[in-house]
Each structure stands twice: as C-alpha cells, then as structure tokens.
Amino acid sequence: MDDRRHKIAAYLQPAFLICAAVLAWAGVGMSLAAQRLGLYLKKEPLPLKKPLEALDEAKLAPYKVTAKIRIENQDIRASLGTEDYIQWLLEDPREPTESAVRKLLLFVTYYRRPDRVPHVPEECYTGGGYERLATNAVAFQIGTREIPGRYLLFAKTAQDLALAMPQFPVLYLFRVNGEYAGSRDEARMALNKNVFSTHSYFCKIELVFNQSSTAPTREMATAASGKLLAVLLPLLEQEHWPDLATHRETSRSGAESKDVGWLGGSLKAEGLGDGCIDASSHPQSFGRVRRGAALEAATHLSRAAFASIRLHNLWRVLNHGESSWREEGV
User: Fold this and answer.
1) Dist. CA 238–CA 233, nearest whole Å
2) H or E element, residue 133
3) Is residue 43 pLDDT above 90, yes or no?
4) Is residue 99 over pLDDT 80?
5) What is the CA radius of gyration of the chain?
6) Which of 32, 69, 110, 130 is placed for a possible disulfide with 84 were both Cys, Cβ 3.0 to 4.6 Å?
7) Residue 166: pLDDT over 60
8) Mean pLDDT computed over 125-130
9) Cα separation of 216 and 209, whole Å?
10) CA 315 to chain CA centroid, nearest Å
11) Over the stretch 279-299, which tens digit does the pLDDT of each residue have?
C-alpha cells in the first residue's frame, strides 16, 4: 500500500506535472501551427488523370509493345504498395536484331498517396538474390531538358551463372509532384518540400535491359533509355500524371485565407493596422512572412522539446537522487 502511494505521489510532483504540461503544450502547439500556417502533413490521395494501363501504345511509336505482364502473386502486389502500374516488354525496331538494347522491360509504378518511397531496384534485386556490381548517377537529355536518373548493374548469383545473360543493367528515375528526381533521397526531399499542398504523389519509371544474351554497356543503356524517355515522358506528363498546380492552388487559397485572418488579427492587436491584409497585392512579401512564421513556430516547438527533456531530468533527480541519475548515464 505504501509503495502504491509512493508511486502515485511521484507522479504528483511539480516537476513531473510541469514536464507533462510542456509536452502537451508542444503537441497542441504543433497542431495549431500546422493549421494556422496551412501545413498539410497528411496528404489526400491524388489519382492519375488516366490509368497507366490506358497508355496509348500507338503513341509510343516507333516502339512496339510485345507483351503486357501482370503481377499475379498477391503477396508481391501487396509489397509493391500500389495497383497503378504497367510492366510491358518493348522492342525498338530501329536497333539491329542482335543489339543488346533492342528489347527491354518497362516498369512504371504510381503512388497516389505516398508516405514512403519504396521498392528501389537496389533493394528489390539484391533481395531477390542478385549482386549489385555498379551504381552511377546519369542524366537523360530530353530535348532541352536534362533529367536525372540512376544506373545500376546487377549480376546473377554463382548458382545461376549457367543461365543466359549473367549481367544486366537497370536504369530508373522518379517523377515527384511535377519534378524529376534521380534517386530515392532526392525523391524524399521533393516530397518533404510539398508541405503547403493537400495532395502529393510520385511515380517511378524503371527500364530493365535483360532481354538479350549480352549486357549493354552503361553508355549504350543510358542512350537507349534517353530515346525511350523522350517518347514516354511527354506522354505521361500530358495524359496521365495529375496537374498538382491545380490542387495546390485550391489548397493554397484556403490556407492563405486562414493565414490572412491570423496575421491580420496579430497586426491589429499590436496596433500596426486595422487587421486587413490583401495577400494578392503582395504575394512575395506574404510568402516571406509565412515562411518566417513557420520557422519561428518550429523554433519555439524545438525549444519546448528541449525544455521538457531538461525538466524531465530534473524530475528524475528529485525523485530518484542525483547518484542514481548519473548511474543510468542520462
């Protein structure tokens, strides 16, 4: 009974109550800051304008679609994380019959509500028993644009060396919220920048040159990928990928009206105006104010978190003694 009272009394100590109050305030403050600044940490799903399966084969000319492969294994489909995908075998009749880049596998996956960037070939193929021999950043020249990508070279395991084509290259890139990224880290950075929009998406385009008995060189595979992407990417941009700007403007108009009310009320309270702000008249200034307010809010929240840690340590000292605190290495 005495032990129970002692435990209850420990939680009623002022230091513990202060810690709990600070942590609660930080949690509420983060939520209020996100609402006032128009931050959207949880994204709404953003479907394609047109399904990937409805991609017009005729517009891929001169490339020919020789096969369309569906993933039948339910476990693999579940691990893929999306039903919006195509896996097509393509052939470029312009290349010689024995060319290592005449045939390839095109694998496109779309994520309408991304909370991660899964299934990069570095992990998928090595998880399937292949050895990665090379990794290089590459650039695809698409008209006047230079689009980043990644080149990988894989080899089969020792027990599979008797099979055809022991090595093969894989090239891939991402389309994230209207811009291109050449790696998973770049894709994550692009996703994290999109905090003022209610929607977010990404799409991975993967090209696998494993349909020939010989592996193309990196230069050959990169050049062949660039030729296909010059046909494929404009088609995806125009007919399939969503226009995030439209969704961003819709969400921004609502967020800015909230910001104007909050910021105008603050100025009025400080005697700096009548509380009325026309954000459309000064969009750049308003954007700077908004970013500055976001930075200030983040600074206050981080300070609150450090303060709560210090108060928690103080509470442990008061309840358990300084010696036990040091013994635990806190």
Assistant:
1) 9
2) strand 131-142
3) no
4) yes
5) 27
6) 110
7) yes
8) 84
9) 8
10) 40
11) 444 444 434 444 454 555 555
Mean pLDDT for 176-205 is 85
122 bridge partner residues: none
For 263-274, write each residue's pLDDT tens digit: 444 434 444 444
Contact 25, 304 (CB under 8 A): yes
Residues 6+ apart with CB under 8 A from 244: 46, 177, 178, 194, 197, 199, 200, 201
Say what the pTM is: 0.66
Other beta carbons within 10 angstroms of residue 159's beta carbon come to: 8
- Distance, C-alpha 51 to centroid of its chain: 21
Q: Is residue 255 exposed (0-12), middle (13-18) or buried (19+ Cβ within 10 Å)?
A: buried
* Residue whose token pair is 């020792």: 158
Residue of 98, 88, 60, 215 lying closest to 151 (CA atoms): 215
The amino acid at residue 46 is L
Contact in structure between 170 and 136 (CB atoms under 8 Å):
no
Alpha carbon 251 to its chain centroid, in Å, reads 19
How crowded is residue 204: how many other Cβ atoms within 10 Å of its Cβ? 24
Q: Distance between CA 307 and CA 300 in Å, rounded?
A: 10
